[in-house]
Each structure stands twice: as C-alpha cells, then as structure tokens.
Amino acid sequence: NAGVMQNPRHLVRRRGQEARLRCSPMKGHSHVYWYRQLPEEGLKFMVYLQKENIIDESGMPKERFSAEFPKEGPSILRIQQVVRGDSAAYFCASSPHLRSGAFFGQGTRLTVV
Amino acid sequence: GESVGLHLPTLSVQEGDNSIINCAYSNSASDYFIWYKQESGKGPQFIIDIRSNMDKRQGQRVTVLLNKTVKHLSLQIAATQPGDSAVYFCAEITATGAGGGADGLTFGKGTHLIIQP
Fold this sequence. Notes:
The structure holds 2 protein chains of 2 kinds.
Chain A: E1 5-7, E2 10-13, E3 19-24, E4 31-37, E5 43-50, E6 53-56, E7 65-68, E8 75-79, E9 88-95, E10 103-104, E11 108-112
Parallel strand pairs in A: 2-11
Antiparallel strand pairs in A: 1-3, 3-8, 4-5, 4-9, 5-6, 7-8, 9-10, 9-11
Chain B: E1 4-5, E2 10-14, E3 19-25, E4 30-38, E5 45-51, E6 56-58, E7 62-67, E8 72-77, E9 86-94, E10 106-107, E11 111-116
Parallel strand pairs in B: 2-11
Antiparallel strand pairs in B: 1-3, 3-8, 4-5, 4-9, 6-7, 7-8, 9-10, 9-11
C-alpha cells in the first residue's frame, strides 16, 4: 500500500505564474488535508476535503488559492499568480475517516523567483 | 490562533537517555491527539496517538501521556538514539459538531530534539 504521494517534490515558478500541486491519498483514504510549512515553523492548516467536497477551507487565503479533490484523480492545490511569499513546503495528508490519524506525503517545495 | 503549543523549541539529550517532549493545548474540546516526527526535508511521520478517554498509551520505545486536567501532553522516548533526531510536533483534532468545522489537525511549532553522542 503506497503512502501519500505528492508531486512534484520541487517546483520553481516565476512571480505571476500558476503553481499546481498534486496529492494522491493512500488507498482507501477519502479525507485529504493540505498544510503549508515555512522553514523552522509548524504546519499551518489550509483546507480539508473529501471526495468532490470542500469541508473546511478556513486556512486558505481568500484570493489566488483553490483546492479540489475530484471523484477521480488526485487532489490539486492551485496557486494562481504566485508571489515570493508563497514560497514554502506544502504537505498533503490523508486519512481513512474523520478523526483518525492522518498520514503525510513528502511535500512539495515551492520556490517563487 | 493556534490552540496547541510546545514549551521548548529545542531539547538536547545524551544518546541512550530518555527524552521527554511536552505539549500544552488550550482547547478543552480536543479529544484526539497525535505526535508526529519530522526529519529534515521530509514529511511528518505519525508516531503515536491517544484519545481523551485514555491517559497513557505505549508504543515501541515511545509513551504518550495525557493530562486533561491541565491540558498537557507529553511524548517520552526511551533510550534515545541518533535516529530520533528530528522535530516533534503534537497535533490535536477537535470535534466541532455536526456540519464539519476545523476538523483538520492543529499543530504547534514543534520541538527540535538533538541527540548528543
């Protein structure tokens, strides 16, 4: 059973471009969470999704950021018109049901130049 | 703001000694807690969890203690090894009731565990 798969592992974007981060949850997991981590800091919750539904996006910036978890395929975190402040590690986690331990992927490190 | 925090940003221990990493939480509605280990450049790794109906849970070389009275959580690592060097986070899940809510994990800043030879 493969773990949570994130790709790409590293992503470089110029200011103003779009960044697409993908996350394939563990098999059988229908709950997906996205987190952002700055160097030497903890993980900041961004959004919680179930298949085809956004359950909680209270941690998402109001503009430029969006997330989806379609019926088929990976969850996508999309950042439009990236700025330098978007540079961070973005982690995805999945769990089989609500209120159970979440398992994390290795993250995507976004660098905006 | 964050409801989960850690007392010490860095903990240095001798190899072979026991390590104790502490965590305070402020949300009394939190009823499920998880400890994660994050090595440099990697994603957080699930170590051990505990539900609020328990006050102690043991794993392999690790023990988690929960004191709901003072809202305190600790992770004990027995016979610390070089491979234990990492940042350790505690995280909580809070049931906010029907309709969802912030059921995502809430993390503190983490404690960096350093193992000295």
